[in-house]
Amino acid sequence: MMGVVANHRDSFILTLRCPALVRAAVQDSEFHEHLFVSEPYGWHISSAKEPFASQGQRKTCTFDSVRHRAMGVFGRSHSGTGGSIMQRPPSLLSRSPLSRSASGTPTRSPSASTSYSQTPSHIIASIKALNFIPVEEYLMNVGTVHWALFADHLFSYCDEIDVWPLLSWVSDISNGRHTMRGLNLDSNFTDMIINRFSYSDTVVSFQKRYLAPFHQNVKRAADEHGVRRKNSDESNDLSSQALMRSDGHLTLEVVSGLMNDFLPDFIASFEFSPLPLRRVMAKWRGKMGSGTEIINSQMIRLLQWFILPVILNPSSIDLGESEEERTIEHKNLLIECGECITALCQQKALPPTEPYASLFARHNAKMNAVAQQIMDLQSIELSVKILAAQCKPDEKRIQREEEKFRRYLESFDDSSRTVSPNASVSSMSSIISNTEKKDILMEKLREHRWKLMKNTEGVSLYTSINFQGVSARVELVVQSTMEKVLKDLMSALFTKYSDATVETLPNSHKHTIYKKDFPFPFSPRFYAVHTYTEVIDDEGFLYIEDDDPIAAPPSFQRTIMHLGGAHLTRIREKGMIHIEMMVHIDLCGSIPKWVNQMQNKKVAHNLLWTAKQIRFDC
């Protein structure tokens, strides 16, 4: 049996305690009937070896296919610097019922604008009442190109009030329960909701409990063996070379040792498993049974779709280095660990050899036992009741998410509105005088909420978690002229974005448009800004302003440059220039906290890089 301690709304912490309390407290049978209906998610998984399926199609889930999903090899890719945005293979998607233009681009039906542009309150009220029919009709009346952004807002709002009805509705769609209404949603939208759940704050927080130490161990092992390999190559040390296979990969014994440390941590972490994940696993069992493999099918699906992608690509949830920064030993070791997980899920179909056979035998029974424990229906019912009793809704956060969702729905059909509907603070408008812009910039640079993060190579980096969105500030002194520094700043800005389109205008004025991929599965971002300079006596200013009239292309979320720029002060007696530069960007849309924190670090890194270019050029 399983008791619960729900001590934080964001993490839904659940602990394996108090079996007597569980047995005594479960009384409500109506909850059971409401909770477990229909097929889990929209994966249409028929077995552990067939996780991809749509409209009667089936494909075998090979290790490479999951590895590609983790690395973003297949599916669409937005041009930008953030890597590929992963998606299901196009061949696995069912056809959309939406009409198409002559060019093949999905278009909205004529009734869409009149039917739903003025009824966001109705859609939101229906969601609160657990009625998703208006959402179905909304999806039928908009092009599929808009679904990803809609999924961002829909999931974020439902996650704040209660994500389970949304997941249950998605399951109903995948099970064909709404076909009598003529609904024929692409399985792609089902995937969008599933993926947003897989990368939600709740699930990512749970994953980091056991994957963070695992990836630290993997990196340590890769670094150690990288050094040994280098030394053995130089000294012809056969004992060190024996740690490597002929193809350069580490031996299975090394991988087995890492996985022998990982699996107990993984099993023990289920004491803290998120309640929505437990409910999903219980639905899997109710629909599909335990399967025919040695590991039950619910654990296999969890390993394949929640764990394996992050084992292969830890940076997908901001764990460790990016793929470009990893050594060859590190990359190979991650691949080997991923293959070990795949072998764990296919023991009956492909009996393992040593050392994996002994490794799996030590952990099979424990993994199945903990899976059964967290899927106990009475325990889940009690968990829901305790969570409802101990964790009261955060009305302010709910209201904030509801307002963002409402603005998105209202702005969708408003052709005159081009700025993101989530803006709560206006960017510096061109109607404001330069004097006012200067005062606003100086006030922001002097904000007491900036906190010094580090001082490196003569550049001080400041960040703040108290501003809405992402922000960073740098400060440095260089020996140069005012004119040269301003020119170098104009040249260095945005150069790290390979797809930036820069238009040079008169009077030291530039117009820049650039796109930026976001971590899978969240919508990429679109930026449009003006930059120009001004010199007043011994002071210089660089202004970065949002270009309000420029709207984002379909499938991109428009961001807002709340405030950006630089203040330069000439130190005449020393021939030096003191530089202060900052940016404050609203990423808009709806993203988890961990993604926002990840982007905040990237913005700080990019601003620090820009400052160093100026310092080294002077």
TrEMBL record:
- Composition bias, Polar residues: 102-117
Task: Enumerate composition-biased segments (Low complexity).
Answer: 88-101
Give residue ranges for domain START: 438-599
Q: Where is the signal peptide?
A: none
* GO MF assignments: lipid binding
Q: Where is this region: Disordered?
A: 74-117
Q: Which domain of life is it from?
A: Eukaryota
Recorded protein name is START domain-containing protein
For this protein's source organism, the top of the classification is:
Eukaryota, Amoebozoa, Evosea, Variosea, Cavosteliida
